């Protein structure tokens, strides 16, 4: 098997106030895997995504991404481009006046030329079938449209990994089917947090469960902690 893109080793994390939510999480994400990350509300699923790209820092343990140990803030700058996080609330991700400007923001900040950015925006809109939204006012979009545009802003960075936090929220049935088709066609590794089991059954190639601060393969008894 190819080397993992992301490796977590014995991660511990506590919220402010001392509540320990992760108690020794280990995990490998390999190229092409689409991993469903399940668990009850408050189990720490969103926190785990934020740890992967450095928005939170573990109390203990190691994070390796794309062949390098990541410890300091500077180490995660590359990770945030290559492992794109789509937030649970798209309003946290969209802040430019129009959809096209939102998609252009990330590539411009990476130093791409104007022509390169225009090509990336056009290509990304086409990939996600969002061409008709290019010049729409972002804050006037529906909740489902905002969610797809938030995904597009991450895809415009041309990542190797997608980290998706409840991607089907606010989507009607037709748009969910559209999202399933998009994700299953993408050649990217993914970690997907969702309570929509039908969606996960259609998209995921593997499922893990976060429970009582530990990570388990969903098909195994909880007595067996996930060890890679």
From TrEMBL:
Any GO MF annotation of the entry: ATP binding
Stretch forming the signal peptide: none
KW ATP-binding (keyword) present: yes
Alphabetical list of InterPro entries matching this protein: AAA+_ATPase, ABC_transporter-like_ATP-bd, ABC_transporter-like_CS, ABC_transpr_CbiO/EcfA_su, ECF_ABC_transporter_ATP-bd, P-loop_NTPase
Occurrences of domain ABC transporter (ranges): 6-228
Annotated Pfam families: ABC_tran
Keyword terms, alphabetized: ATP-binding, Nucleotide-binding, Transport
Protein family according to the UniProt entry: Belongs to the ABC transporter superfamily.
Name of the protein described by the UniProt record: ABC transporter ATP-binding protein
């Amino acid at each position: 098997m190819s080397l993992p893109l992301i490796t977590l080793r014995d991660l511990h994390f506590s919220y402010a106030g001392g509540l320990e939510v992760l108690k020794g999480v280990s995990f490998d994400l390999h190229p092409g895997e689409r991993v469903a990350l399940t668990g009850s509300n408050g189990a720490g699923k969103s926190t785990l995504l934020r740890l992967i790209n450095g928005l939170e820092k573990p109390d203990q343990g190691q994070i390796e991404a794309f062949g390098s140990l990541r410890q300091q803030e500077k180490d995660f700058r590359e990770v945030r481009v290559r492992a794109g996080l789509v937030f649970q609330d798209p309003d946290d991700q969209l802040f430019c006046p129009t959809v096209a400007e939102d998609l252009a923001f990330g590539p411009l900040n990476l130093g791409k030329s104007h022509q390169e950015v225009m090509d990336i925006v056009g290509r990304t809109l086409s990939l996600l079938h969002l061409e008709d939204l290019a010049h729409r006012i972002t804050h006037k979009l529906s909740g489902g449209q905002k969610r797809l545009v938030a995904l597009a802003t991450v895809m415009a960075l041309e990542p190797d990994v997608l980290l998706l936090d409840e991607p089907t929220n606010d989507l009607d049935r037709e748009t969910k089917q559209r999202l399933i088709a998009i994700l299953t066609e993408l050649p990217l590794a993914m970690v997907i947090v969702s309570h929509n089991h039908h969606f996960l059954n259609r998209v995921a190639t593997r499922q893990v469960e976060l429970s009582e601060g530990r990570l388990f393969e969903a098909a195994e008894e909880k007595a067996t902690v996930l060890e890679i």
